[in-house]
Amino acid sequence: MPHNPEALPPIAILGAGSMGGAIARGLSRSGLAAGGVTATNRSLASAAELDGLADVTSIALENRPTGNTDAAAAAGIVLVGVKPAMVPELLREIAPALRPGTIVVSLAAGVTVATFEQILGGDVVVLRSMPNTPALVGRGVTGLAAGTRADAAALATARRLFETVGTVVEVPESQIDALSTISGSGPAYFFLVVEEFTKAAIGKGFAEREARLMAEQTFVGAAALLEASPHDPAELRRQVTSPKGTTERAVAVLQDARLDDVFARATDAALARAKELAAGA
């Protein structure tokens, strides 16, 4: 079998919940995990959800208490996916087991690179990531911020890993919280708009099933058209909006509602909360 230059070193995913599990699945599908993926979960039930994936070994800590340190010791890349409050304890547990040069990537919201670097010491490379839930279907957007010791090669390796579940945006750590208000929280904004559009359809006399089908598939189809088209969203909107037509009148109502201001205020509110959480509030 020819050597794949894109292949990734052995990977440990510690705390492979929904996001860590999505990444394990993406790596398995990609064929890039030539060195294997070891995923840990606390319970047998959670570990069983990842059983049978190609190149993935799923460990339950309840029957293998040393699973985190075993996985970390054998890995070239360690993804830390436990809840933010549990991160420092996990880092102290695995620090002695990590080999020099290991790349450690945080999946935990609000935990700084400085916290990771301080606990893990000077021999490892730290990056901070912010994936979003569409990673579950391979269409994620992941923000990736390099720590103080991450060089271009480490960043490129982490990028290859996260590209198995979607696209990657490299940002300085100072922008990670702002990115979370767009790509991290963004799916919720989209789902809310679909919910309200569905209610509008029900209000026009459609049954709920029809209303949902029309609303959801209109947005799904519009997203596919946007992706396939060379045009930007404003141009595609103009193509739907005939002069003096029905769409023009509807869009005028939406613009009168100051959607620009609504989205600015919504993302500002999310950013303020991110700063509160980072400060421990």
Descriptive key words:
Rossmann fold, 2 domains, eight-stranded mixed β-sheet, ProC C-terminal domain-like fold, alpha/beta, 14% strand, 281 residues
Kindly describe this structure.
- Belongs to the pyrroline-5-carboxylate reductase family.
- Pathway: Amino-acid biosynthesis; L-proline biosynthesis; L-proline from L-glutamate 5-semialdehyde: step 1/1.
- Pfam families: F420_oxidored (PF03807), P5CR_dimer (PF14748).
- Residues 173-277 form the Pyrroline-5-carboxylate reductase dimerisation domain.
- The protein is an alpha/beta fold and 281 residues long.
- It has 12 helices and 8 strands.
- The protein has 2 domains: 11-173, 3-Layer(aba) Sandwich (Rossmann fold), CATH 3.40.50.720; 186-278, ProC C-terminal domain-like (ProC C-terminal domain-like fold, Orthogonal Bundle).
- Helix 1 (18-30) links the parallel strand 1 (11-14) and strand 2.
- The longest helix is centred in the C-terminal third of the chain and has 21 residues, at 208-228.
- The protein is elongated and about 70 Å long.
- The termini are far apart.
- The model has no long low-confidence stretch (mean pLDDT 95).
